[in-house]
Amino acid sequence: MHQALIAPTLFDGYDRASGVALLLSGETIEAVVPVSEIPTHYQRTELKTGHLSAGLIDLQVNGGGGVLWNNQPDRQALNTMAAGHARAGVARILPTLISDTPQVTQQAVQAALAASADVHSGLLGVHVEGPFFSQDRNGVHHRNHLRHITESDWAWLEAAAQVPSIVTLAPEEVAPEDIARMVSLGIRVSAGHTNATHLEVNRAIAAGLSGFTHLFNAMRPMSGREPGVVGSALSAANCWCGIIADGIHVHLENLRLAFNAKPRGKLFLVSDAMATVGSDEKRFRLYDEWISEQDGCLVNAEGRLAGSAISLADAVRFCTTELKLPFDEAIAMASRYPAEYLGVDDRCGVLRPGRLADVTWFDDQLQVAGLWRAGHRLY
How far apart are CA 370 and CA 352, in angstroms? Predict the structure, then answer.
């Protein structure tokens, strides 16, 4: 099927243009051309308001559509999660499993391998967040599941490496040679839930660590005498940082600090979304306790934050309206930059010829008005 999408403006991930059409040929993008040059055999879809951008990409999604992946680590849950986030304008997600038993981890990785093979699934691969974490920075991760790496873990790590994958770990809990081994497999290694020193972080970076998970949260803060994980992340010019922009997890001034400190393209948005996104349900169970949404936060019985209640599109709006970033930069932080970090920018993240036809349509109020995934209009 040949389609021509026309909106008042189009942002391709690099530049904004008007008076142009996005040509889709089946599952991929064919070209961006002036409206006057649309081939006659293309089906035209004229959108009277708003902006077209590359489909949003979220690299930290624990749940959605009423499902938490840890509770149902199978392909059906992944499809439900992807559908829930699609309703919020997100074309592709990296399903994220938080610290759990070896059996649940293995099952989740196998489900992700199967699901990500389908270009229409909206699933990119797998993000395993834990269990190699600091007991002092566990956040909502159950301490009973935190442990050191063993030889048996390499079975699921090698399986995860077959698809685009991230493993979040605490650098002080994993030997540099094990980090190097993960990186040699093709896994992106990211620091999170960590009490590491600057020296320990730098050793991990030398071994191949390339990212930091939900910057500022569950990591050693910066002080005058010790950069900690936060200071190390901000000063590591070649490393990427994912950040939750909801006005809750990170103070607005710290968001501004991170944006100003990191080179362009090295700070990207994540939702850290839980089951409530794309669902009317406002509570769910995690580790046999109830997590409830209260005043825009997801908290456990102790009042501890447990992921977020936002979608990636909410983060884009927050960066635009509160942080006062240019809309195009906020969009790039939720599409091109995460694609570059995960190494999938050759097939998604920008509206360029040969890429998958993933397109998010925002209206003039920056609300999601529609979504195309691999050329198929979902909403």
Answer: 19
Find out whether 335 and 93 touch, Cβ atoms under 8 Å.
Answer: no
Instruction: Using the predicted structure, report yes or no on whether residue 267 has a pLDDT greater than 80.
Output: yes
Alpha-helix residue ranges (DSSP H) falling in 14-91: 75-86
Both structure tokens of 184: 């040699």
Backbone angle region of 200, left / alpha / beta, with phi > 0 → left and psi within -120 to 50 → alpha: alpha
CA distances from 322 to 247, 271, 371 (A): 9, 16, 25
Give the three-class secondary structure for 100: coil
Q: What is the C-alpha separation between 357 and 345, in angstroms, rounded?
A: 13
Q: The whole model's pTM is what? A: 0.97
For the question of residue 272 being annotated catalytic, the response is yes
Task: Kindly list the structural domains of the chain, giving each domain's residue range(s) and its CATH number in brackets, ordered by start.
Answer: 2-53+355-377 (2.30.40.10), 56-342 (3.20.20.140)
* Whole-number Å distance between alpha carbons of 77 and 72: 6
At residue 288, φ and ψ (nearest 5 deg) are 65, 25
Q: Is 101 helix (H, G, I), strand (E, B) or coil?
A: coil
For residue 9, pLDDT beyond 90 = yes
Active-site entry in 100, 246, 272, 314: 272
